[in-house]
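ARCHIVE RECORD
Type: protein–small molecule complex
Small molecule: nicotinamide-adenine-dinucleotide
Source of inputs: curated submission
Record status: active
Notes field left blank by submitter.
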Amino acid sequence: MRIGFVGLGNMGAPMARNLAIAGHSVTGFDPVAPVPDGISTASSGADAAEGADVVITMLPDGKTLRAVAREIIPAMKPDAIFLDCSTVEVDTARHVAETAQEAGLRALDAPVSGGVGGAEAGTLTFMVGGDPIAFQDAAPLFDIMGQKAVLCGEAGNGQAAKICNNMILGVTMIATCEAFALADKLGLDRQSMYDVVSTSSGYSWTMNAYCPAPGVGPSSPADNGYKPGFAAELMLKDLRLSQQAAEASDADTPMGRYARDLYAQFVDGEDGRGQDFSAMLPRFEKRSRS
Ligand code: NAD
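STRUCTURE (tokenized, with ligand):
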């Protein structure tokens, strides 16, 4: 396929590279990041989109996506697929899909889980909203960039799945970290805590696969000085998106709200920015109840 790729940052660059290695003709654009080897360089987003069968966007936020969509939709050929993999607001995803459809294009929102490691290894999970036929047509690309793609329903539902998943992730990471900090104060060693919880009813992905305690469980950012991984500010972004969606849909999400507030305090008011989101554990370690 001819693929236009717009946004070649930490995630976009390895995703684009994997598509090129698999034999697709990829043309990329990013105003800042370098274009990886094996990918033709476009002079703008519109230039990358022209003549492409699929245009993939991997951008920092919804505002950027709306601006890029305004630029590239008129340049795309009829019936081409606008495939956005960024994490953005559900209503932005729906707006972009509608605009693309009005212009005779097909649209999918397909945010990912798996981080930079998953992007490099081609093992991302895609949560997809939009046209089922477009989903089928894009399946060979999901297979290259990822290990699984789930069609979640109409436009915007991929983003809905992503923010619900990450709301659970933020809440469970906080719960795991505060439990470790409590265990410390009770004189329970961390290895015993891990051995019990990871095989008891408190188990979770944050305990079993991404343990926030250094030297305990499988290798994780905690073993690398809390270098991200998944940065605390990206978790905050996703928790803010989930609260925005909860407000818009009148959903009661008290734990999600509290997780957003704690990550906001950690990132904006303490030393969380630039650290992995599991660095909540050293944060709790230093604190007392008052
Ligand atoms: P990033 O900041 O490294 O990359 C974004 C890129 O977009 C940058 O290189 C930037 O220059 C480029 N960009 C900005 N404006 C542009 C424009 N007008 N035209 C073209 N390119 C433009 O971010 P990232 O870590 O690659 O994340 C991308 C998206 O994926 C975000 O929405 C993020 O929330 C989501 N995500 C990230 C991770 C992760 O672990 N990094 C995991 C899952 C999802």
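CURATOR ANNOTATION: The beta strands are 2-6, 25-29, 40-41, 54-57, 81-84, 106-109, 112-113, 124-130, 146-151.
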